[in-house]
């Protein structure tokens, strides 16, 4: 999970952007790249009325100027505010996030001094591939989980995050077997994902210790798997 902090001209005011949250939703229609953003505002000195009128309202006004916004909803209470923005399908979300940050920066100078604004990007219906790393022709229990994670899994994560379209890599390690779960943006086809993963695995195998083997699962749609479960 990557968190980008941008310090503004007010020393006490910080925007934290690109906190990536993955949500798998059931979808009966063809999978589309659906995106939403949650903007959380924390300010201990602001009551519910001021949060609504002096924080939420001006932020919403700027957000509505962004292209491709389909719906916006908000709530406010003492010391806390939340704005959820839904976007139209298949947009360039990274470009939209940058535009959103710029819009919010235009408002932040007028927010309470202790305000902290957190932008969370929500990716729905991700496609997933799991990489399984284990000892080659040996008892996997002969290597402990800590060694597996430190010496094998962590370096692999850095490499797999270079694969185009990956927005998150989760890791698991148990009984000498390591798992790297890669989550891709949903608009990327299964064929493209498989090709990119196999190309990266070919590179990884050139320096992976020979006593280890690495295998990739088939690509699956997380929302469909959650529905079946």
From TrEMBL:
A single GO cellular-component term on record: plasma membrane
Domain of life: Bacteria
Recorded coiled-coil stretches: none
InterPro entries in UniProt: Acrflvin-R
Pfam families noted in UniProt: ACR_tran
PANTHER family cross-referenced by the UniProt entry: PTHR32063, SWARMING MOTILITY PROTEIN SWRC
Protein name (Swiss-Prot/TrEMBL): Efflux RND transporter permease subunit
Lineage per the UniProt record: Bacteria, Pseudomonadati, Bacteroidota, Sphingobacteriia, Sphingobacteriales
């Amino acid at each position: 999970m990557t968190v980008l902090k941008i310090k503004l001209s007010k020393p006490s005011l910080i925007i934290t952007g690109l906190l990536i949250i993955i949500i798998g939703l059931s979808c009966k229609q063809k999978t589309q790249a659906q995106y939403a953003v949650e903007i959380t505002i924390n300010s201990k000195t602001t009551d519910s009325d001021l949060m609504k009128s002096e924080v939420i309202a001006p932020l919403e006004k700027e957000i509505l100027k962004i292209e491709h916004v389909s719906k916006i909803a908000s709530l406010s209470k003492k010391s806390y505010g939340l704005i959820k923005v839904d976007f139209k399908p298949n947009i360039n979300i990274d470009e939209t996030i940058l535009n959103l940050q710029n819009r919010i920066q235009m408002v932040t100078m007028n927010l309470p001094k202790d305000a902290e604004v957190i932008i969370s990007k929500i990716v729905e219906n991700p496609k997933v591939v799991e990489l399984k790393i284990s000892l080659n022709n040996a008892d996997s229990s002969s290597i402990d989980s800590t060694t597996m994670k430190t010496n094998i899994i962590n370096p692999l994560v850095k490499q797999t995050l270079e694969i185009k379209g990956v927005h998150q890599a989760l890791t698991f390690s148990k009984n000498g077997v390591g798992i790297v779960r890669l989550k891709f943006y949903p608009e990327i086809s299964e064929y493209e994902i498989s090709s990119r993963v196999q190309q990266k695995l070919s590179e990884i195998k050139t320096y992976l210790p020979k006593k280890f083997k690495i295998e990739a699962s088939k690509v699956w749609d997380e929302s469909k798997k959650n529905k079946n479960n």
